[in-house]
Every structure is written in structure tokens, then in C-alpha cells.
Amino acid sequence: MVRKQSPYEDVQKQSRQHDPYKIIEPTPKKYLEGSAYEVIYNHLSYKHEVLDKYIETNTAVFWIKKDDIFSVATTLRHLGYECLSEMSAIDLCAKKGHFELFYQFVGFSDSCKNRRRVRVKCILLPNESVDSLSFLYRSANWSEREAYDMLGIAFDKHPYLKRLIMPHDWVGHPLLRSYPLKGDEFAQWYEVDKIFGKEYREVVGKEQRDSARVDEKDTFNFAKIGYEQGKGEELKETEEKHAFKKIPFVKDLHKIAPTILKKRL
């Protein structure tokens, strides 16, 4: 069951998520002209309209129309970008009235040397659909199902467009900003209705989804990570480690003085 999320308001926004004294600088964008990615732009712009282009974090970014996504992906595959490493969308319906759909392509062949990564973006309005890439890239099958499950985006000609993470009878799409962080009325009663039935709602009560009410000393309802603790037993303050057979080249992590890498290796 899928319910229309209306209106598209950001109900997940929290005051603590915005620090008025911290200003995050945008990722710098570079001109694509004169770079190794210019030849990719020439191929794409020959058949399609490229709305915008730039280089961001060593990745070429191309903005296109949503109706051109299948043909653009076909062109990129012929150019050596045979891996679709990531595909998802960002819910900007509350701010701008649309989704921002993005695809991350990677080329491992010698022809893609010095231009390994290409990102394709497009704008998708609410209740609009886009062509599926599952026939070009096998990885798109589950990525598109996840986008449908979490954001409600439909992909035309997908071989099996069903929910991937949530139950098939779930109502709503949890990654929409219009979906409450603690779940709606349906989410609070879902497991109770499934296990006991609706007639037991008054007996069992709603599912507790407020993280602020977690009691670390309550071993009956909560488990403490890192501790071997029996249900309902007295809380132990000593951490117990489990001995696992490690792979020979894996070393123990330095918990006292860990080393933080300043750049990617």
C-alpha cells in the first residue's frame, strides 16, 4: 500500500541540526573545459542537451533532462563507463518543489584514464517517473527499488518494481522529508497489528520510537552494545570481548590512540 505524501513539507527539520555559528562552505566547482572530461561532454552534447557541466571532487557532473537519462547512460556505457556504482535521489520538494536524481558512473578501462568518475543529475517533479536503467546496469535494479521504496520514485519498465527494505504493505516512504522521523500513526502500530492483531492495541500499546526515552539501565527492554548482558539481569559495568578467528593480515585497532587519515590513500 502506497500513500501519497502531501503536502511536501519538511517535518524532519530539528532546531539542533542547524548551528548558527557554523557555516559550511560549498564544494568548489571547476570548469570542465580543457580537462580530460571535455571529450565526454563533446560526446554527450552531440546528441543531448546538457543543461550544466562542471568538475566537483575530481568528478565530472552533467545536468540533463530526465527524459534523456536512458540514452545518456547508453552513451556513457559505450564510452567505457560500465559500472553504475551509486544511484539515488535527494528530497528537495519542501524547498524547491522537486527531487534531485543522481547517477554515479565509474570507468575502469584504459580509455577512462584520468577521467574515472562521471555523475549525471536531473530534476524530477513529484509524481513523475523516469526510465529504468536496469537493462543497462544490473546494479540499477536494487538501487531503483530502494529509491521507490524510500522516496516513492517510480521507474518505467523496471522488471520488478517492488519494495526492497520496508514490508510490502507499508504505508508511506520513510526517506521523504514529509515523513515523520519517529514514524506516523501506521508505523507505531504496525508490529502490534501484525503480531497480536488490532484488537490487542489497548493491551500492548504503541511501539516506543522516541530515542530520548531509552534507559541504559533497563536490561529488560534495551540491549547495551559491547556488553554481554542477559535480558532482565543486573547491569554489568565491565565490557566483555568475544574472541574471533581473525584473517591473518587484519590487525587490532588502536582504541587508545587511533590514527586519523588526513587524506584518501
Automatic annotation (TrEMBL):
Top-level taxon of origin: Bacteria
Keywords: NAD, Oxidoreductase, Quinone, Translocase, Transport
Residues annotated as domain NADH:ubiquinone oxidoreductase 30kDa subunit: 62-184
Entry EC no(s): 7.1.1.-
Catalytic activity reported: a quinone + NADH + 5 H(+)(in) = a quinol + NAD(+) + 4 H(+)(out)
Coiled-coil ranges from the UniProt annotation: none
Keyword Oxidoreductase: yes
A UniProt-annotated Pfam family: Complex1_30kDa
Keyword Transport: yes
MF terms (GO), sorted A to Z: NADH dehydrogenase (ubiquinone) activity; oxidoreductase activity, acting on NAD(P)H; quinone binding
Role noted for this protein: NDH-1 shuttles electrons from NADH, via FMN and iron-sulfur (Fe-S) centers, to quinones in the respiratory chain.
NCBIfam families, sorted: NuoC_fam, PRK08491.1
Family statement drawn from the similarity comment of this UniProt entry: Belongs to the complex I 30 kDa subunit family.
Record protein name field: NADH-quinone oxidoreductase
Organism the protein comes from: Helicobacter pylori (strain Cuz20)
